[in-house]
Amino acid sequence: MSETNNLLLKRGNGKCNNVCQSSFAHAIFSRDITGIMSFGQDDFGCTFVYGYLNGGFSFPEKHHYSIVILDSCGQITHNLNDKINFDFVNDGVAPFFAKLPDSYLNLDCTPTGIFNVQCDPITTPTPTYSKRRSRRAFVGVVKDNRLVDKFPIPKDGN
């Protein structure tokens, strides 16, 4: 095997250990909060999160904002503030980038990937996980412990 191929294989070493298909998704923020957040999953399950939010965060120095992932039942599954240091500038968020391990967040690499979550809000108050992909996940904005907006994350532009 050539040295170039060995270097390419090394990108999976470390925090991402699954073999997955690559996936891409994005959320467009288009109401009071504006901007875009994209998610790219590599062949090893690592998810790259990047984007910017250019408006709608009123007085971030006075309020506590969190950017979260919600399942189709509206339950928060991930608080991205735990892994990404969002820099609030004026009334927006500066451009950001993070590589998240598959054990924390993935799109559809593992049974707990955000597009594998399936729940019935009437019979199942907490999410169950299934191979059947719901393709319904959301990015939400929480202000002072209250969800103020959410935006769908369609998989691969669907």
Secondary structure tally: strands? 11
Q: How many individual helices?
A: 1
Distance between the termini: 38 Å
Strand line-up in the sheet with most strands: 1-2-3-7-6
Which class of secondary structure composition applies to the elements? mainly beta
Order of helices and strands: HEEEEEEEEEEE
Q: Would you identify the regions where 5 or more consecutive residues have pLDDT less than 50?
A: 1-14, 129-134
Number of domains: 1
* Mean pLDDT over all positions: 80
**Dominant shape:** globular
Q: Quick one: biggest sheet?
A: 5 strands, antiparallel
- Rg calc: 16 Å
* Helix-residue proportion: under 10%
Secondary-structure map:
Elements: H1 3-10, E1 23-30, E2 34-41, E3 47-55, E4 65-70, E5 76-79, E6 88-89, E7 92-100, E8 117-118, E9 128-129, E10 138-143, E11 146-152
Antiparallel strand pairs: 1-2, 2-3, 3-7, 4-5, 4-10, 6-7, 8-9, 10-11
Compact description:
By secondary structure, this protein is mainly β. It has one helix and eleven strands, in the order αβββββββββββ. The protein starts with a helix and ends in a 6-residue tail after the last strand.
